[in-house]
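In this section we walk through a basic example: taking a raw amino acid sequence and producing a predicted 3D structure, encoded as discrete structure tokens. The instruction is simple. Fold the sequence below.
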Amino acid sequence: MPDIIMFLKEKGDDLKLELLTECFYLGRIIAVPNIHRPCLAFAGFFEHFSYEQIWVIGGS
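The resulting token sequence is shown next.
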């Protein structure tokens, strides 16, 4: 399974990703290859919150 370091090396430039966290999380395995858009979590709604997925934060 890929980890975050491998994902950033392979797809970071293509997806224009910017790392916004400390480096000690980069070795974590990506076990669930789905994306979570945490808008409702930021507003305080955690009923359907996914702790396992990759968070995508940004503007369009």
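Looking at the output, two observations stand out. Strands lie at 35-36, 54-55. The CA atoms of residues 5 and 24 lie 11 Å apart. In the next section we compare this with other chains.
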